[in-house]
Every structure is written in structure tokens, then in C-alpha cells.
Amino acid sequence: MTEKHLSTQFDSELNRVSARVMELGGLVESQIRNAVYALTSFSIDAVDQVVTTEDRVNAMEVEIDQELSSIIARRQPTARDLRLLIAFSKATANLERMGDEACKMARMVKAIIESGAARSLPSGELRVAAEMASELLRKTLDAFARLDTKAAVAILKEDDLIDDEFDGFVRKLITYMMEDPRTISASLDLLFLAKAIERIGDHSKNVAELIIYLVEGKDVRHQTMAAIESAVL
After folding, report:
1. Can you count the helices (H) and strands (E) in the chain?
2. Cβ neighbourhood burial of 65 (10 Å; 0-12, 13-18, 19+)
3. Which parts of the chain are beta strand (E)?
């Protein structure tokens, strides 16, 4: 991921942080996979795996942040090196927040299971969206490792699809609750899960935007897709 410097030690430090960020990404990816499995299979074991991994994710985020602060203080990097370290920091924060969303999903699934309502919920479409979000994170980590801006643009487009799934699901839930008020409580549980899934997609999008910022030196947040594609291509 990094370019060679006159200081071999600096190269080693950058490569170490890069490896740690990817390791963190792998942990969060496992959390989301387990959260999706918990949702699709109503598995308490999968819920417990998500929650157990959360402490490791939080600790690693703190460690990476401390390491980045130390490198910036000692090396006083400029230009692309500084962008790289900033990107590492922001990617780490987004990954930790994805882990938080996975934990929210897991805890809600556990509450649904314990309430005895698990099998009666219309959660099929939600499972599709959850699997889309999990796959999007996998693609995001791969693009970040390779600094692939074209893949980053594709990720931004896929996040739009997850947003569309969320909007459509919310509309169906509203109709569902209006037709049968007895389903309001269960529907609100599903809405909570849907929002967590949508937020995982948003954080993947944030990391994809960081890839473009790092490679092109352009902040593409809040820009249209046409403008982003122009900046990259």
C-alpha cells in the first residue's frame, strides 16, 4: 500500500499500521458475518460471537489511534504520507463504528429471540440487505488494501442500492403497521435492524471516499456520482 521512503524504519511503521487496519477490518467483517447469520438463523451462539469480538475491536482501534499519533508526532509527515495516516485514522474509526452497528444488530436479534417473536417476523428482505452490506465491506477492505479508486467508485454505487433497499423496506413496514397495529412492536424491531444495516453501508462508503482522497488528493464527499467519476477517471 505504501511507497518507499529513505527511512526504512518509516516504511516499516507505515506497513505495520496498514496491516493493523486490515486486521481490524477482518475482525469487523467477522462481526458482521456473524450478525447476519444471527439474523438469518436466529442463532444465540452467533450473537455471542459478535458481542465477544467487540472488546477486541475497541481495543485495537485505541491501539491503532495511539500508534498513528506517535508516528505523526515523531515523523511530522507531509503531503501524501500525511494523507495516508489521516486515511488510516478515519478508516479505523469507520470500521469501529461498523462493529458497533453489528453489535446493535446482534443484541436486537437476541431480544427478538427471547421475546418468542423470531419466526413470525417478515425479515426475508432484511436478510438480503444485511448480506449486501457484509459483501460491501469485504469489497471495501479489498479496495483499500489495493488503493483501487475504480473499485471505490463501484462501492459508492452499491451503497446507493443498500439505501434504496432500506427506503423500500421502511415503506413496506409502514404499510404493514397501518394494516395491522398489532405488528407495530415487531415492525419497530425490524426498523432498528434495517437502520443498523444501512449505517454499515454508509461507513463502507466513507472508507471508499477515503481511498479516492488518498489516491487523487480530492475530497469527494457530498459530490454527485458524475463528479466523482470525473475526478477518478
Report:
1. 7, 0
2. middle
3. none
